[in-house]
Please model this.
Amino acid sequence: MKQLSTEQVNFIAKKIESGEISSKELYSDLLDHFCCVIEEEINKNVSFDDAYKKACLQICPDGLEEIQQELLNSKSIKRMKNSTVTLGIVAISTACVGVWFKMFHWPAANIFIFTALTLLCLGFLPMYFFYSYKQDLTKALFPKEKYLWFCEYFSNCNRMCL
Model:
């Protein structure tokens, strides 16, 4: 099994750096993924230059910025999901407290119920629908995201096994 030389790895690293990747984790993952794909191609008796071109077409046909944008979108969607769930829990809890106060005829029951309905209608529901819209839009724009994860996972497994 042929391995890449230090010069070849440095060449790949410089190309990734020129793509203005801001995340260090993404940079190291891309470098590892590029090296794995190129090593596989070199083992098929393909030249380094041709293997690099094939790796570029396979990993990032539209540029490295696209991969970084996909990562940023997935992080913002996770943050939005967590915010939506938290707001939903707060709204439901407030409604439960309002109903509890109402059952015992305690003061401020109507305030709790009104607050819960306001949080639900003006906070939770718009965030939920926007999150669903963004999720569908991301799936439509980046269908190869699953493919990239699959390739990266198995290339790391193969590298660890060897």
About this structure: The chain is about 85% helix and 0% strand. Residues 120 and 126 are 9 Å apart (CA to CA). Helices lie at 6-18, 24-42, 48-59, 64-103, 109-141, 145-161. Residues 66-141 form one domain.
